[in-house]
Amino acid sequence: MTDQSSPSSSGTPQRVAFLGLGVMGYPMAGHLAKAGLDVTVYNRTASKAQQWIAEYGGRSATTPCEAAQSADIVLACVGNDDDLRSVTLGEQGAFAGMSRDAVFVDHTTASANVARELFSIAREQGLHFLDAPVSGGQAGAQNGRLTIMCGGDAAVFEHVAPTLRHYGVAVTLLGESGAGQLTKMVNQIAIAGVVQGLSEAIHFGQRAGLDMPRVLEVIGKGAAASWQMDNRGNTMIEGRFDFGFAVDWMRKDLAICLDEAKRNGASLPVTALVDQFYGDVQALGGRRYDTSSLIVRLRKLSA
């Protein structure tokens, strides 16, 4: 493999394809275009692809297979395991269009099992596969400051890492195929507990009559500090939950975590409980609320 920084060694732009232009994929693909790469996009809703082209240039394709043709790296950010299989496998899937030795990088938060499955299929077809889920939310994607957790072969990782750094501030190989997805599960487990704890803390302080913005300013300088407190604390106080990562998506992620825990024997009592709490938020009409909306449930119980 040759180095895959923005222009190739011949002076022509690196050719990449990006599959899935949701709230994360749209700006991620945009960073590649702004960096000078030759980008072809595919999206299930074609109008979204046309909108992206109007903003960033490049080309769109009608199928993942078409998008992947002649691409050095094919990247994807779709919804779940089934969506990922649909854009990779079959006659219209990306694997069918990829050139030998090309790399497929999956940014979807999916199961470790599907990562290992597609890694094996890719290898059988003379391709490479890297699972590379991201953390940082919509703001991280827009600002090019995502954390990217990778699993796969070291040589493949080194090959694609310069490309991923166009939107990733921390791009790390964590182990063999599936390790990226397992690391993302650790991330989501940690977030679930932190958001529930922060929700209870803010709810308690408000019920006690405290000036909560000042309280968070003070405790945010000590051991209670967290990304969630810094970025979502005040919006939770204000009851604003119109951010990118929805409760529906978090429940999908936590289901993956809990399913994997059944396989590896991990005990996740708090995660299981918080997952149920997110179910309560869904029932209250908060399916598209940001994940910080756990506090809505507490307020409802105390009303």
Structural class: alpha/beta
> Radius of gyration over alpha carbons?
20 Å
Report the total helices. Answer: 14
In the predicted model, the low-confidence regions spanning at least 5 consecutive residues are 2-10
Helix percentage: 40-55%
Mean pLDDT across all amino acids: 95
Number of E-type strands: 9
Shape: globular
Largest sheet: 6 strands, parallel
Portion in strands: 5-15%
Describe the protein.
By secondary structure, the protein is α/β, with parallel strands linked by helices. It is built from 14 helices and nine strands. A six-stranded parallel sheet has the order 3-2-1-4-5-6. Strand 5, helix 6 and strand 6 form a beta-alpha-beta unit. Helix 9 crosses helix 11, helix 9 packs across helix 13 and helix 9 packs parallel to helix 14.
Secondary-structure map with pairings?
Elements: E1 15-19, H1 25-34, E2 38-42, H2 46-56, E3 59-60, H3 64-68, E4 73-76, H4 81-88, H5 94-97, E5 103-106, H6 112-124, E6 128-131, E7 134-135, H7 137-143, E8 146-151, H8 154-164, E9 168-175, H9 179-207, H10 212-219, H11 227-238, H12 247-264, H13 269-283, H14 294-302
Parallel strand pairs: 1-2, 1-4, 2-3, 4-5, 5-6, 8-9
Antiparallel strand pairs: 7-8
Provide key terms for this protein.
303 residues, alpha/beta, six-stranded parallel β-sheet, three-stranded mixed β-sheet, 14 helices, 9 strands, globular
